[in-house]
Amino acid sequence: MSADSGSYYVSWKGRPTGPFTLVQVRTQLAAGEISRAHQIGINGGWQLLDEFLTQHPEEKAAHRVAELQQQEARLRHDYEAQLAAERASRNTAEQAAQKAEERASLAHLVPREPIPPPPLTYAPQLPPPPAPPGPFPADHRPTRTSGLAIAALVLALCCFIPYINFFSWILALAFGHTALAQIKRDPDLDGRGMALTALIITYFLLIVGLTFFVLIVYHGLKFSNYLPL
User: Fold this and answer.
1) pTM of whole model > 0.90?
2) By CB neighbour count within 10 A (0-12 exposed, 13-18 middle, 19+ buried), where does 69 fall?
3) Do 21 and 61 meet the contact criterion of CB atoms below 8 Å apart?
């Protein structure tokens, strides 16, 4: 077609398409549907689209304007999409903050779970060792003290007093042995230690007294041999 008719055919590899107006050709070129390697029909012949645009600067300027308009439209679309995304994000944040405030206002109405106690960090207490065997069960304890054991200890201490010790040692021995026999028969009685202490003191003083008596008699008899008849 001629340029005066206002319509053009575009050919690629011998396959013409059209007719198109210059505006449609510019639009297809900007959209990538055709390229500058295509041929365009001019005055009954074919010419490269790139040469046609170079020979017609007004067409090139118009094509640049169309490209700028499409770029502006694309930027406007991206800007509007970004604004919509920011608006949606702001709405989501506001809704989350509102839900958090509602949960905080209703937190005192929700029953709290009891806090479990902390785990034990010390070792469990071991049971006490078994008591050694004795004459009575381990859980049995004497409930009273033998009066004879107390009397025997008092009489044994009286053996240190002059004149009283002449008869106190006899009673201390008698009461001490009687107390031991009584404690052995009755497990409820206590005072075995006192009875033994009384017997030890009495026998010790008795042995010491007998020793001194024997020494005095011996020395007395020896001294009497030197006396004149």
Assistant:
1) no
2) exposed
3) no
Q: Pick from 201, 183, 198: which is nearest to 153 by CA?
A: 198
Instruction: Note whether residue 82 is domain-resident.
Output: yes
- 95 & 174 share domain: no
> Which residues form the domain of 71?
1-104
Residues 91, 151, single domain; the answer is no
Q: Per residue of the chain (229 residues), what is the pLDDT tens digit?
A: 434 346 778 877 777 887 777 778 778 878 878 887 787 777 777 877 777 777 665 555 666 677 788 888 888 899 899 989 998 988 898 888 888 888 777 766 656 666 776 666 655 566 776 766 655 554 555 578 888 888 888 888 888 888 887 788 888 888 989 988 988 888 888 888 888 998 999 999 889 988 988 888 888 776 666 555 4
